Amino acid sequence: MFKGIYHGKQCHAADIPAVLARAWAAGVDRIIVTGGSLKESREALEIAETDGRLFCTVGVHPTRCGEFEESGDPEGHFQALLALAKEGIEKGKVVAVGECGLDYDRLHFCPADVQKKYFEKQFELAEAVKLPMFLHMRAAGEDFCEIMTRNWDRFPGGVTHSFTDSAEDRDRLLSFEKMFIGVNGCSLKTNENLEVLRGIPVERLMIETDSPYCDIRNTHAGSQYVKSVWPSKKKEKYEPDSTVKGRNEPCLVRQVLEVVAGCKGISDIEGLSRTLYHNTCRLFFPQDIDASANAQLESGTTVQDS
Questions:
Q1: Where does the chain bind a divalent metal cation 1 (predicted)?
Q2: What distance in Å separates the CA atoms of residue 137 and residue 100, rounded to the nearest whole number?
Q3: Which of 129, 244, 255, 279 sits a CA distance of 20 to 30 A from 6?
């Protein structure tokens, strides 16, 4: 979509520079480009290398786990992922293993037994490169948490992103002390979703867009809290200075922040923003937290963890 292609049809010119310019202007500091397959992970690393503020993940999405066996050499496929992750780490670009996990809503793409097998395999990847995990859980809470429990000592922490499941599943995830929960527009559709969100402590929360999908729409329960708007045009009437209707993009993470603040009754939205950003750095950029702490200690100030 950021190349202007929708359902195989070219509707407008590629506009990644304009999308990024809007993101930086909106206060986005860094963007993590998600890999969902070996091929996508390679492409994500290529994109990340184009700007110092871009980073990426390496991993295989649950609906794509069939690619291990379709390759004809599952172990060789895994080794290619490992090599790519190591290359990206050396370049300072790969910050997590993922997107990996379980998705039982879309078993027509990949059966549960294959998903579970290669979800578990990717903990080996995280252990080898000592990176956190960017996780996907959809309608699979019991199996997901069982696999997490077995492998908990193999990785430094993780975030289960685009969370749309129940309060029970939320509490299962929160029982893992190194786990964060990530929310986006898909997490804020219904009043039940908002009630689940209210039970996530801000110190365990992250926000995201998951663009180009998961935008906040006027029909969503969370839309009542949205205050920020951008000019928007249909893709057929594309203008560089406008967002595209129905296509999510990084600048709109501000809207997710506003819904979280409104839903939780938090008036200090900038303070909330700093806490959520700190959570993100704790997981994906811990060296920044350490450097900041050392700098403040050297200057004689104290540091408090949010």
A1: 99, 210
A2: 9
A3: 255
Closest CA to 195 of 219, 171, 216: 171
Helix (H, G, I), strand (E, B) or coil at 180: strand
Which sequence spans correspond to the domains of the chain? 30-298
Residue 31: in which H helix or E strand, if any?
strand 31-33
Q: Which residues of the chain have pLDDT under 70?
A: 290-306
Please name the residues in contact with 52: beta carbons below 8 A apart, sequence gap of 6 or more.
none
Which residues lie closer than 8 Å to 229 by C-beta, 6 or more apart? none
Q: Which residues of 170-185 are buried (b: 16+ CB within 10 A; e: fewer)?
A: bebbeebeebbbbbbb
pTM higher than 0.85, yes or no?
yes
What φ, ψ does residue 102 adopt, rounded to 5°? -135, 140
**DSSP at 206:** E
End-to-end CA distance of the chain: 37
Contacts of 94 by beta carbon, 8 Å cutoff, 6+ apart: 45, 48, 55, 56, 57, 58, 84, 85, 87, 88, 129, 131
CB 131 within 8 A of CB 89: yes
Farthest CA pair distance, the chain: 59
Annotated binding-site members for a divalent metal cation = 99, 136, 161, 210
Give pLDDT tens digits for 101-144.
999 999 999 999 999 999 999 999 999 999 999 999 999 999 99
Contacts of 155 (CB under 8 A, 6+ apart): 97, 123, 126, 127, 130, 131, 132, 133
DSSP lists the bridge partners of residue 158 as 133, 179
Q: Note the CATH architecture for domain 30-298.
A: Alpha-Beta Barrel (3.20)
